[in-house]
Amino acid sequence: MILVCAMRGDTEAEAEKLATRIARQRIFSDEAGKMNLSVTDVGGSALVISQFTLAGDTSRGNRPGFSSAAPPEDGLRLYTHFADCLAQQGLPVETGRFGADMQVTLTNDGPITLWIET
């Protein structure tokens, strides 16, 4: 599962770079138990979910601010472009519905969660 947040000023070039990095990131264990295989190497797939709340600024007050998130029209364009770029890397890709209030369940198999920025 990949949670994606487009920020103000993000570009298609950054979405492309991010998709390439994620497809090549060696985060799955090899036969020796070392994180040495990519999602492509293990024949995995990607579920891409738009998550604008990752832009939440909690540095002041008691309510997060989201002004650094991209406007919805830019967010949708970059989210779609990112998912398309992952598919071009050879990954089977499924997406959530942009802007929808979805119920998504994640079972995190292992101790790894990464924050990847361009």
UniProtKB/TrEMBL annotation:
Its EC number is 3.1.1.96. GO terms for molecular function: D-tyrosyl-tRNA(Tyr) deacylase activity. SUPFAM superfamilies: DTD-like (SSF69500). One of its GO terms (cellular component) is cytoplasm. Keywords: Hydrolase. Belongs to the DTD family. NCBIfam families: D-aminoacyl-tRNA deacylase. This is D-aminoacyl-tRNA deacylase.
